[in-house]
Amino acid sequence: MKRYIAIFCLVIISTITFAQSKPYVILVSFDAFRWDYLNRGLSPNLEKIREEGVSALSLRPSFPSKTFPNHLSIITGMYPAHHGIILNNFTDPFDKTFYRMSDTNSVRDGRWYLGEAFWETAERQGIITASYFWPGSELKLSYRKPTYNQAYDHNRPYETRVDGVIDWLKLPSEKRPHFITLYCHETDTQGHNFGPDSPQTNEAIKRLDYIAGYLLKKVDEIKMKDSVNVIFVSDHGMTSISKERTINIENIVGSEKCKFYDMGPVMFVEPAKEKIKEVYDILKKNENHYKVYYRSEIPEYYHFNDHPFISSIVVIADLGWSAVSNYARKSEREEKGNHGYDNNQLDMHGIFLATGPSFKKNYHTGTLWNIDIYPLLCKIFDIYPRTNIDGKLDRIEFILNNN
Ligand code: AMP
Ligand code: ZN
Ligand code: ZN
Question: 22-240+351-399 — its CATH code?
Answer without folding.
Answer: 3.40.720.10
